[in-house]
Specification:
α1 (about 10-25) packs across α5 (about 130-145). A three-stranded parallel beta sheet has the order 1-2-3, sandwiched between helices. With about 150 residues, it is mainly alpha-helical. The chain contains five helices and three strands. The N and C termini lie far apart (about 30 Å). The chain has a single domain, classed as Rossmann fold (3-Layer(aba) Sandwich). It is about 45% helix and about 10% strand. The model is unreliable at about 1-5 (pLDDT under 50).
């Protein structure tokens, strides 16, 4: 998250992600959603990097599905996190505003989704923060329901 560009601040990103979390939990009953920034209101409150990595790795290992919100081309630890999620076989869905902002291999992962050692992988587009509820309802939740183990 610390890799945010000037055009999209941490606070704006956090607001969007918190809205996604709220919608997943309250509208769709997906209670075990994790976002490291949930308790981090500003970049001044970022914790020790090794502790953050430990928490993120533990959260990824225990998750059913990995969701990445990628509103613009940025350098972000989320790119490392999704790589790790893929390496341990977690289904991954990426919400992006522009497909050309994504790393090249995301397209390859989507084409190989569910085969050749690639876990289920999808990229879906959203137009703006106002479009996130639609993307959650129509893209993320069906992907989650299809790929998360029954509880």
């Amino acid at each position: 998250m610390s890799g945010r560009s000037e055009s999209f601040s941490y606070e704006e990103s956090r607001r969007e992600i918190l809205e996604v979390m709220r919608r997943l939990r309250e509208t769709h009953g997906i209670a075990r959603a994790y976002y490291a920034g949930e308790a981090i209101e500003t970049t001044d409150a970022f914790s020790d990097q090794s502790l953050a990595l430990e928490r993120d790795i533990a959260a990824i290992r225990s998750c059913s599905v990995f969701l990445m919100l990628y509103p613009e081309r940025i350098v972000s630890s989320a790119l490392v996190e999704i790589g790790y999620a893929m390496a341990v076989g977690k289904p991954c869905i990426v919400l992006a505003r522009d497909r050309t902002d994504l790393p090249f291999l995301f397209g390859e992962a989507e084409m190989l989704s569910g085969r050749a050692g690639v876990p289920p992988f999808a990229v879906r587009l959203y137009a703006s923060g106002d479009d996130l509820p639609r993307a959650i309802d129509e893209d993320v939740v069906p992907f989650y329901r299809k790929h998360a183990p029954a509880s």
